[in-house]
Amino acid sequence: MDKEDGIYVTLAETNFYPHGVQNLVIWGRSQGFAVLDVISEDGEVLHKLERAPEQNEVQCELDWDRRFDHMQQHTGQYLLSALR
Prior knowledge:
The protein is an alpha+beta fold. It has one domain (2-82): Elongation Factor Tu (Ef-tu), domain 3, CATH 2.40.30. The protein has 1 helix and 6 strands. It has one helix at 64-82, and strands spanning 2-3, 6-9, 25-27, 33-41, 44-49, 61-62. A 6-stranded antiparallel beta sheet has the order 1-2-5-4-3-6, with no helix packed on it. Strand 4 and strand 5 form a beta hairpin.
């Protein structure tokens, strides 16, 4: 679906949380373009894409190195906050 700020798609299943790990994901190995944002609208999860996919069936893949880095930072922040 085209919106004012870009192209959005819905998926039958997703591992991405709305406003969760934006810019930490890559949209399909074969397509090789980024998911720019993930939002929730009217009960649906919408994925903002760099460009429209050419196929109806796609694979999604996390940028694991960045995701793991953020997980570690998140845990570290909890530990630091607990020391106060």
